[in-house]
Predict the 3D structure of the following.
Amino acid sequence: MWKKILLLIVAVLLMNSLSAQQKPGKRIEITGTVLDVYHSPIANALILVDDKKTNSVTDARGNFRIKVKPTALKIGVLTFGNGVFEEEIMGRRLINFNFSTIVNQPSVPNSIDGEQGVYTGYGMVKKKNLTTDINTIDGTDKKYSTYSSITEMIQREVSGVRLTGGNLIIQDSQNLYGYIPPLIVVDGVYMDQLPDIPPVSVRSIEVLKGTSAAIYGTRGFGGAIIIKTKMQND
């Protein structure tokens, strides 16, 4: 009799344990401080989790506090003038960022011989070295001549881009105040909106998503659209 009761208790405890394991884990709180190359705190740095922008930013002392899912792998910061800095979480609850430790990273060459590259606005980057999402549209392809506008061209050819309130929005980029339109650069010139250029006049379009637009600092929070025309580059 006692053996049956004991077995029943063990079975109930085992079922409860398995049920608890199946429930999604609680979010993990991570804190840290962000410092620039001069070891000074960086305020208003945007916190990234697995290359996704969040609503968390650093305070005046460069401190941040954010809760992430147990499955999160990377945490990073996006800052104006310093770019992006990412770290593997690996179970850590305290992660500090000091940009002075990456200031001497080798620069990206302006040209690439024998390998396909992507133009990010500051030169060419090897595709195999890209860790973030950049989509390329080859404007010399005749199939694009059927589109009526650049907006239609990008919206149909690039995933994660949609038209909202007259603006193209990349990966639903937004903050507490609403959607954030992407930075637009045409032949090296910054523009407030997509120009009314016929698709046949476009040589190439690069759509930078997530942290790939970090080279533009805070202006790239909503991603970036880099357009090169045939007129400028013939």
